[in-house]
Amino acid sequence: LTVSFDGFKALNELTLQIEPGELRCIIGPNGAGKTTMMDVITGKTRPDSGTVRFGPKLNLLALSEPEIAQAGIGRKFQKPTVFERLTVFENLELALAGDKSFLRTLFARRTTAQDTRIYEVLEIIGLARLHQAQAGILAHGQKQWLEIGMLLMQEPELLLVDEPVAGMAPQEIERTAALLQSLAGTHSVVVVEHDMDFVRSIAKRVTVLHEGRVLAEGDMDQVQKDPRVIEVYLGG
Ligand code: ADP
Ligand code: MG
Fold first, then answer.
1. Which of 51-65, 90-104, 112-126, 182-196 has the lowest mean pLDDT?
2. CB–CB of 80/144 below 8 Å?
3. pLDDT at 77
4. By alpha-carbon position, which residue is closest to atom 20 of ligand 1?
5. Ligand 1 site: residues with CB under 6 angstroms?
6. How far apart are CA 151 and CA 73, in angstroms?
7. Which protein residue's CA is at the shortest distance from atom 6 of ligand 1?
8. 10 CA distance to ligand 1 centroid (A)?
9. Which ligand number lies closest to the CA of residue 3?
10. What would the pLDDT profile of 140-174 be if each residue is shown by its tens digit?
11. What is the per-residue pLDDT for 112?
């Protein structure tokens, strides 16, 4: 994939492959192209050249942003966007809607399967006891988990998560690690994160991006020992 902005190559012949059920961490200095890569996968940015495939057949470049989400790719941005005035439960309920109307969803009768899914997701994200709480009173970490839960309502196959632990307390970071690890296997999970201790705690395979391409890839120990990685990212 190549993406240029006014002649500057944010992605420069990037090649990356994620296996089904894999948990992959992507690291790299600011400006390396991490967010641009997620923008291309989700259809927000169109590349100058290259291909993006989801599974063996699906060509994501032929799909619109909503079609890509529908195909099973969920993205969590850094800043939580939960509805503060609604309860935890209602936030998950709304997320069932996808692109359907907000009000229609709140007043529509839920099916048993939908109820079951909401309770399942409440357990997964560890907020079952708080399901009637207003989302506005949740701690920062709990809001982030709720937002991951909202993504899970759509049952995505692939989750893209941008800096999930920024601003979190140590205990919240630990629970986020456990949550993302529990999602791997049944989902593919791609995590962009700067917190190296966090990456070390969850990563099997780490990709280091630099200047729009892959600088190194391997397990955390291999990557941390790589002289090129030390020079551009870990050194100092
Ligand atoms: P990262 O997420 O790794 O920090 P980004 O993907 O955000 O890197 O950015 C890669 C490079 O592309 C940066 O130099 C950034 O300034 C540039 N860039 C990203 N988006 C745009 C845009 N919409 N217009 C112009 N330049 C952009
Ligand atoms: Mg970024």
1. 90-104
2. yes
3. 80
4. 36
5. 5, 10, 28, 30-36
6. 9
7. 33
8. 6
9. 1
10. 999 999 999 999 998 999 999 999 999 999 999 99
11. 86
